User: What shape does this take?
Amino acid sequence: MSEQYERGAEMMRKVYGDLVPPLPEGAMAFNDAMVRSLFAEVWSRDVMSVRDRRLLLMGVIAAAGATDVWRIQVGAALANGELSAEEVRETLVILAPYAGYPNVAGLVLATEEAINNWERSAAES
Assistant: This one.
């Protein structure tokens, strides 16, 4: 594994834990590029915390109304202790007027599903 890929894969595990594990290097060109650039270069910068980066990303995802990606971000934020369930719910309140109520309304159910999954996992641990 190349040093850059290894560094990116490590950061990807930090950001997503087991929710989105990196594929082995060489398994898929798209994955290789994402791990090397997005995680080894962008997420690894020390200017902002992972939590702050995730909040910004969640705003972009909300604006796009990308429910599946939102669910992953919420699950990772909860699992990593970056946000509480109440803070995740509050993101919907602040994002709705900026990202659009129709986009954010579609994220409410995904948020509650992610919170329920996280609470169930925590109870089983």
Remarks:
- The chain has two domains: 3-42, 50-124.
- The first helix runs from residue 3 to 16.
